[in-house]
Fold this protein.
Amino acid sequence: MNLQSLVRKNIWNLKAYSSARSEFKGEASVFLDANENPLSDKYNRYPDPLQWKLKEKVAQLKGVNPENLFFGNGSDEPIDLVIRIFCEPRLDNIVAIDPTYGMYQVCADINDVEYRQVLLNEDYTLNAQRILEKVDSHTKLIFLCSPNNPTGNLLDKAEIEKIIKNFAGIVVLDEAYIDFAPNATFINELFQYPNLVILQTFSKAWGLAAIRLGMAFASVDIINLFNKVKYPYNLNQLVQEFVLGELNKIGQKEVWVKEILDGRQYLETELSKLACVQKIYPSDSNFLLVKFNDANTLYSELVKRGVIVRNRNKVTLCEGCIRITVGTKNENKELINNIYEILL
Ligand SMILES: *Cc1c(COP(=O)(O)O)cnc(C)c1O
Protein backbone atom coordinates (compact mmCIF):
# COMPACT_ATOMS: atom_id res chain seq x y z
CA MET A 1 0.00 0.00 0.00
CA ASN A 2 1.32 3.44 -0.92
CA LEU A 3 0.11 5.60 1.94
CA GLN A 4 1.21 8.87 0.40
CA SER A 5 -0.97 8.33 -2.66
CA LEU A 6 -4.03 7.93 -0.40
CA VAL A 7 -3.48 10.93 1.88
CA ARG A 8 -4.68 14.42 0.94
CA LYS A 9 -1.70 16.46 -0.27
CA ASN A 10 -2.23 19.28 2.22
CA ILE A 11 -2.25 16.78 5.09
CA TRP A 12 0.79 14.89 3.83
CA ASN A 13 2.69 18.18 3.59
CA LEU A 14 1.25 19.60 6.80
CA LYS A 15 3.73 20.75 9.38
CA ALA A 16 1.99 19.94 12.67
CA TYR A 17 1.67 22.55 15.38
CA SER A 18 4.59 22.20 17.75
CA SER A 19 3.35 22.76 21.28
CA ALA A 20 5.57 23.73 24.19
CA ARG A 21 4.90 20.35 25.75
CA SER A 22 6.07 18.52 22.63
CA GLU A 23 9.19 20.64 22.06
CA PHE A 24 10.60 19.87 25.46
CA LYS A 25 10.11 16.41 26.95
CA GLY A 26 11.79 15.31 30.11
CA GLU A 27 12.59 16.39 33.62
CA ALA A 28 13.29 19.99 34.58
CA SER A 29 12.74 22.17 37.62
CA VAL A 30 11.69 25.46 36.02
CA PHE A 31 9.04 25.51 33.33
CA LEU A 32 8.72 28.95 31.74
CA ASP A 33 7.84 27.78 28.24
CA ALA A 34 4.06 27.55 28.04
CA ASN A 35 2.62 30.73 29.60
CA GLU A 36 0.95 28.71 32.33
CA ASN A 37 0.12 30.05 35.78
CA PRO A 38 2.92 28.90 38.14
CA LEU A 39 1.04 30.02 41.28
CA SER A 40 -1.53 27.28 41.08
CA ASP A 41 -0.31 23.76 41.75
CA LYS A 42 -3.11 21.62 40.39
CA TYR A 43 -3.95 21.20 36.73
CA ASN A 44 -2.02 24.35 35.86
CA ARG A 45 0.26 22.58 33.37
CA TYR A 46 -0.69 21.51 29.87
CA PRO A 47 -1.15 17.74 29.66
CA ASP A 48 0.96 15.29 27.65
CA PRO A 49 -0.25 15.83 24.05
CA LEU A 50 0.35 12.17 23.17
CA GLN A 51 -0.84 10.67 26.48
CA TRP A 52 2.10 8.20 26.67
CA LYS A 53 1.48 7.01 30.20
CA LEU A 54 -2.06 6.00 29.43
CA LYS A 55 -1.12 4.64 26.02
CA GLU A 56 1.47 2.30 27.52
CA LYS A 57 -1.10 0.80 29.89
CA VAL A 58 -3.85 0.46 27.30
CA ALA A 59 -1.48 -0.90 24.65
CA GLN A 60 -0.33 -3.58 27.08
CA LEU A 61 -3.94 -4.50 27.77
CA LYS A 62 -4.67 -4.77 24.04
CA GLY A 63 -1.44 -6.51 23.04
CA VAL A 64 -0.23 -3.76 20.70
CA ASN A 65 2.57 -1.20 20.80
CA PRO A 66 1.75 2.25 22.21
CA GLU A 67 2.80 3.71 18.83
CA ASN A 68 -0.10 1.87 17.18
CA LEU A 69 -2.65 3.60 19.39
CA PHE A 70 -4.49 6.91 19.09
CA PHE A 71 -6.81 8.39 21.71
CA GLY A 72 -9.66 10.68 20.76
CA ASN A 73 -12.52 12.58 22.33
CA GLY A 74 -14.79 9.56 21.86
CA SER A 75 -14.63 7.46 18.69
CA ASP A 76 -16.23 10.40 16.98
CA GLU A 77 -12.85 12.13 16.84
CA PRO A 78 -10.97 9.41 14.89
CA ILE A 79 -14.03 8.99 12.62
CA ASP A 80 -13.78 12.67 11.69
CA LEU A 81 -9.97 12.65 11.49
CA VAL A 82 -9.76 9.66 9.18
CA ILE A 83 -12.10 11.40 6.75
CA ARG A 84 -10.19 14.68 6.94
CA ILE A 85 -6.84 12.91 6.43
CA PHE A 86 -7.78 10.82 3.41
CA CYS A 87 -10.77 12.35 1.62
CA GLU A 88 -10.54 15.38 -0.64
CA PRO A 89 -13.90 17.19 -0.32
CA ARG A 90 -16.11 17.02 -3.45
CA LEU A 91 -13.65 14.64 -5.11
CA ASP A 92 -13.12 11.49 -3.05
CA ASN A 93 -15.76 9.15 -1.68
CA ILE A 94 -16.46 6.71 1.14
CA VAL A 95 -18.21 3.34 0.87
CA ALA A 96 -20.07 2.01 3.91
CA ILE A 97 -22.56 -0.67 4.86
CA ASP A 98 -26.22 0.24 5.34
CA PRO A 99 -27.72 0.18 7.93
CA THR A 100 -24.95 1.19 10.30
CA TYR A 101 -23.84 3.81 12.83
CA GLY A 102 -25.08 7.24 11.75
CA MET A 103 -21.93 9.21 12.58
CA TYR A 104 -20.00 8.00 9.51
CA GLN A 105 -22.45 9.70 7.18
CA VAL A 106 -22.74 12.83 9.33
CA CYS A 107 -18.96 13.24 9.34
CA ALA A 108 -18.78 12.58 5.58
CA ASP A 109 -21.50 15.21 5.02
CA ILE A 110 -19.77 17.76 7.24
CA ASN A 111 -16.57 17.25 5.27
CA ASP A 112 -18.45 17.41 1.94
CA VAL A 113 -17.32 13.91 0.99
CA GLU A 114 -19.60 11.61 -1.03
CA TYR A 115 -20.96 8.75 1.10
CA ARG A 116 -21.94 5.57 -0.78
CA GLN A 117 -24.13 3.06 1.01
CA VAL A 118 -24.24 -0.64 0.23
CA LEU A 119 -27.13 -2.65 1.65
CA LEU A 120 -26.39 -5.53 3.96
CA ASN A 121 -28.24 -8.74 3.12
CA GLU A 122 -31.78 -9.12 4.52
CA ASP A 123 -30.35 -11.04 7.48
CA TYR A 124 -27.78 -8.25 8.05
CA THR A 125 -24.84 -10.33 6.85
CA LEU A 126 -22.08 -8.71 4.81
CA ASN A 127 -21.53 -9.22 1.09
CA ALA A 128 -17.92 -8.23 0.37
CA GLN A 129 -18.40 -8.48 -3.38
CA ARG A 130 -21.17 -5.86 -3.39
CA ILE A 131 -19.05 -3.49 -1.28
CA LEU A 132 -16.06 -3.87 -3.60
CA GLU A 133 -18.25 -3.24 -6.66
CA LYS A 134 -19.13 0.22 -5.28
CA VAL A 135 -15.46 1.20 -5.09
CA ASP A 136 -13.88 3.41 -7.73
CA SER A 137 -10.53 5.18 -8.08
CA HIS A 138 -11.70 7.95 -5.72
CA THR A 139 -12.83 5.65 -2.91
CA LYS A 140 -10.45 6.29 -0.03
CA LEU A 141 -12.29 4.68 2.87
CA ILE A 142 -14.60 1.75 3.55
CA PHE A 143 -16.48 1.86 6.87
CA LEU A 144 -17.45 -1.45 8.49
CA CYS A 145 -18.91 -1.94 11.95
CA SER A 146 -18.73 -5.29 13.76
CA PRO A 147 -20.72 -5.99 15.87
CA ASN A 148 -22.84 -3.64 13.82
CA ASN A 149 -25.12 -0.92 15.18
CA PRO A 150 -28.18 -1.01 15.04
CA THR A 151 -28.37 -4.63 13.84
CA GLY A 152 -26.29 -6.07 16.72
CA ASN A 153 -24.57 -8.85 14.77
CA LEU A 154 -20.92 -9.56 14.05
CA LEU A 155 -19.99 -9.35 10.38
CA ASP A 156 -18.49 -12.49 8.84
CA LYS A 157 -14.73 -12.59 9.35
CA ALA A 158 -13.90 -14.01 5.91
CA GLU A 159 -16.03 -11.33 4.21
CA ILE A 160 -14.28 -8.58 6.18
CA GLU A 161 -10.90 -10.05 5.20
CA LYS A 162 -11.93 -10.17 1.55
CA ILE A 163 -12.60 -6.43 1.70
CA ILE A 164 -9.36 -5.57 3.53
CA LYS A 165 -7.29 -7.65 1.09
CA ASN A 166 -8.94 -6.43 -2.10
CA PHE A 167 -9.36 -2.73 -1.36
CA ALA A 168 -6.50 -0.37 -2.20
CA GLY A 169 -7.68 2.24 0.31
CA ILE A 170 -8.21 2.26 4.07
CA VAL A 171 -10.72 0.00 5.84
CA VAL A 172 -12.11 1.45 9.07
CA LEU A 173 -13.47 -1.35 11.25
CA ASP A 174 -15.55 -0.03 14.15
CA GLU A 175 -15.37 -2.45 17.08
CA ALA A 176 -17.28 -0.33 19.61
CA TYR A 177 -19.12 -3.44 20.89
CA ILE A 178 -16.24 -5.91 20.66
CA ASP A 179 -16.04 -6.41 24.44
CA PHE A 180 -19.30 -8.35 24.12
CA ALA A 181 -17.77 -10.66 21.47
CA PRO A 182 -14.04 -10.42 22.27
CA ASN A 183 -12.89 -13.38 20.18
CA ALA A 184 -13.95 -11.63 16.98
CA THR A 185 -11.55 -8.70 17.25
CA PHE A 186 -9.20 -7.92 14.36
CA ILE A 187 -6.66 -6.31 16.70
CA ASN A 188 -4.34 -9.32 16.48
CA GLU A 189 -4.37 -9.05 12.69
CA LEU A 190 -3.51 -5.37 12.65
CA PHE A 191 0.09 -6.03 11.64
CA GLN A 192 -0.94 -8.14 8.69
CA TYR A 193 -3.02 -5.32 7.23
CA PRO A 194 -1.35 -1.91 6.78
CA ASN A 195 -4.63 -0.50 5.42
CA LEU A 196 -6.70 -1.38 8.51
CA VAL A 197 -7.86 1.11 11.16
CA ILE A 198 -9.72 -0.39 14.13
CA LEU A 199 -11.91 1.76 16.37
CA GLN A 200 -12.78 0.89 19.94
CA THR A 201 -14.20 2.89 22.82
CA PHE A 202 -14.50 3.19 26.59
CA SER A 203 -18.15 4.21 26.17
CA LYS A 204 -19.84 0.81 26.13
CA ALA A 205 -18.57 -2.21 28.11
CA TRP A 206 -16.15 -0.09 30.18
CA GLY A 207 -19.07 2.02 31.37
CA LEU A 208 -17.33 5.35 30.75
CA ALA A 209 -19.48 7.05 28.10
CA ALA A 210 -19.43 10.36 29.99
CA ILE A 211 -15.67 10.87 29.92
CA ARG A 212 -15.42 10.63 26.09
CA LEU A 213 -12.49 8.36 25.32
CA GLY A 214 -12.23 6.53 22.02
CA MET A 215 -9.34 4.62 20.48
CA ALA A 216 -7.98 3.97 17.03
CA PHE A 217 -5.48 1.19 16.32
CA ALA A 218 -3.45 1.30 13.12
CA SER A 219 0.05 1.26 11.61
CA VAL A 220 2.54 3.76 13.05
CA ASP A 221 2.38 5.75 9.80
CA ILE A 222 -1.39 6.16 10.00
CA ILE A 223 -1.30 6.94 13.75
CA ASN A 224 1.30 9.65 13.03
CA LEU A 225 -1.14 11.25 10.60
CA PHE A 226 -3.86 11.23 13.27
CA ASN A 227 -1.44 12.87 15.69
CA LYS A 228 -0.52 15.53 13.18
CA VAL A 229 -4.14 16.57 12.53
CA LYS A 230 -5.69 16.31 16.00
CA TYR A 231 -5.97 19.25 18.39
CA PRO A 232 -2.65 19.39 20.28
CA TYR A 233 -4.22 18.71 23.69
CA ASN A 234 -7.27 16.70 22.63
CA LEU A 235 -7.39 14.70 25.89
CA ASN A 236 -7.40 16.64 29.12
CA GLN A 237 -5.36 15.74 32.20
CA LEU A 238 -8.41 14.76 34.27
CA VAL A 239 -9.40 12.07 31.79
CA GLN A 240 -5.86 10.75 31.41
CA GLU A 241 -5.46 10.37 35.18
CA PHE A 242 -8.93 9.03 35.76
CA VAL A 243 -8.68 6.28 33.14
CA LEU A 244 -5.32 5.11 34.50
CA GLY A 245 -7.22 4.28 37.68
CA GLU A 246 -10.16 2.72 35.88
CA LEU A 247 -7.95 0.30 33.93
CA ASN A 248 -7.38 -1.67 37.11
CA LYS A 249 -11.07 -2.51 36.99
CA ILE A 250 -10.75 -4.79 33.97
CA GLY A 251 -12.07 -7.63 36.14
CA GLN A 252 -15.11 -5.50 36.92
CA LYS A 253 -15.66 -4.90 33.21
CA GLU A 254 -15.66 -8.64 32.57
CA VAL A 255 -18.19 -9.19 35.35
CA TRP A 256 -20.37 -6.47 33.83
CA VAL A 257 -20.12 -8.01 30.37
CA LYS A 258 -21.24 -11.36 31.73
CA GLU A 259 -24.17 -9.80 33.58
CA ILE A 260 -25.20 -7.86 30.48
CA LEU A 261 -25.05 -11.01 28.35
CA ASP A 262 -27.25 -12.77 30.94
CA GLY A 263 -29.65 -9.82 30.76
CA ARG A 264 -29.71 -10.08 26.98
CA GLN A 265 -30.62 -13.76 27.27
CA TYR A 266 -33.42 -12.88 29.70
CA LEU A 267 -34.82 -10.26 27.35
CA GLU A 268 -34.65 -12.66 24.40
CA THR A 269 -36.51 -15.32 26.34
CA GLU A 270 -39.20 -12.94 27.58
CA LEU A 271 -39.66 -11.08 24.30
CA SER A 272 -40.01 -14.33 22.36
CA LYS A 273 -43.15 -15.12 24.40
CA LEU A 274 -44.91 -12.01 23.13
CA ALA A 275 -47.31 -12.14 20.20
CA CYS A 276 -46.48 -8.55 19.23
CA VAL A 277 -42.87 -9.58 18.56
CA GLN A 278 -42.23 -10.67 14.99
CA LYS A 279 -38.51 -11.23 15.17
CA ILE A 280 -35.59 -10.93 17.55
CA TYR A 281 -32.40 -10.55 15.58
CA PRO A 282 -29.36 -12.45 16.83
CA SER A 283 -27.09 -10.13 18.82
CA ASP A 284 -23.37 -10.13 19.58
CA SER A 285 -23.59 -6.86 21.48
CA ASN A 286 -25.27 -5.23 24.50
CA PHE A 287 -28.54 -4.54 22.71
CA LEU A 288 -31.26 -6.32 20.80
CA LEU A 289 -32.92 -5.29 17.57
CA VAL A 290 -36.51 -6.45 17.73
CA LYS A 291 -39.21 -6.33 15.08
CA PHE A 292 -42.67 -5.56 16.48
CA ASN A 293 -46.14 -5.52 14.92
CA ASP A 294 -46.44 -1.79 15.57
CA ALA A 295 -43.11 -0.24 16.54
CA ASN A 296 -44.26 3.39 16.48
CA THR A 297 -47.19 2.87 18.87
CA LEU A 298 -45.16 0.66 21.17
CA TYR A 299 -42.40 3.25 21.22
CA SER A 300 -44.68 6.14 22.16
CA GLU A 301 -46.57 4.07 24.73
CA LEU A 302 -43.26 3.12 26.35
CA VAL A 303 -42.18 6.78 26.39
CA LYS A 304 -45.42 7.69 28.18
CA ARG A 305 -44.48 5.16 30.85
CA GLY A 306 -40.97 6.59 31.19
CA VAL A 307 -39.22 3.73 29.38
CA ILE A 308 -37.03 4.95 26.53
CA VAL A 309 -35.88 2.63 23.77
CA ARG A 310 -34.56 3.54 20.33
CA ASN A 311 -37.11 3.53 17.52
CA ARG A 312 -35.31 2.29 14.39
CA ASN A 313 -38.51 1.92 12.33
CA LYS A 314 -37.32 4.40 9.71
CA VAL A 315 -33.84 2.90 9.27
CA THR A 316 -33.05 0.91 6.10
CA LEU A 317 -33.90 -2.81 6.46
CA CYS A 318 -35.15 -2.12 10.01
CA GLU A 319 -38.82 -1.46 9.34
CA GLY A 320 -40.86 -2.17 12.46
CA CYS A 321 -37.74 -2.43 14.59
CA ILE A 322 -36.87 -1.08 18.00
CA ARG A 323 -33.37 -1.23 19.44
CA ILE A 324 -33.30 -2.17 23.09
CA THR A 325 -30.20 -1.68 25.22
CA VAL A 326 -29.78 -4.38 27.86
CA GLY A 327 -30.30 -2.70 31.23
CA THR A 328 -30.09 -3.78 34.86
CA LYS A 329 -32.17 -6.76 36.00
CA ASN A 330 -34.86 -4.37 37.23
CA GLU A 331 -34.83 -2.25 34.11
CA ASN A 332 -35.18 -5.32 31.90
CA LYS A 333 -38.10 -6.56 34.01
CA GLU A 334 -39.73 -3.15 33.93
CA LEU A 335 -39.48 -3.05 30.15
CA ILE A 336 -41.12 -6.47 29.81
CA ASN A 337 -43.86 -5.61 32.35
CA ASN A 338 -44.61 -2.39 30.48
CA ILE A 339 -44.87 -4.20 27.14
CA TYR A 340 -47.39 -6.60 28.73
CA GLU A 341 -49.39 -3.58 29.92
CA ILE A 342 -49.40 -2.06 26.45
CA LEU A 343 -49.97 -5.37 24.61
CA LEU A 344 -50.47 -4.50 20.99
C1 LIG B 1 -21.51 3.91 20.65
C2 LIG B 1 -20.73 3.75 19.41
C3 LIG B 1 -19.48 4.32 19.27
C4 LIG B 1 -18.85 5.04 20.43
O1 LIG B 1 -18.75 6.35 20.24
P1 LIG B 1 -17.96 7.22 21.34
O2 LIG B 1 -17.79 8.50 20.62
O3 LIG B 1 -16.65 6.51 21.60
O4 LIG B 1 -18.80 7.28 22.54
C5 LIG B 1 -18.77 4.12 18.12
N1 LIG B 1 -19.27 3.39 17.12
C6 LIG B 1 -20.47 2.79 17.22
C7 LIG B 1 -20.95 1.94 16.14
C8 LIG B 1 -21.24 2.97 18.36
O5 LIG B 1 -22.44 2.40 18.45
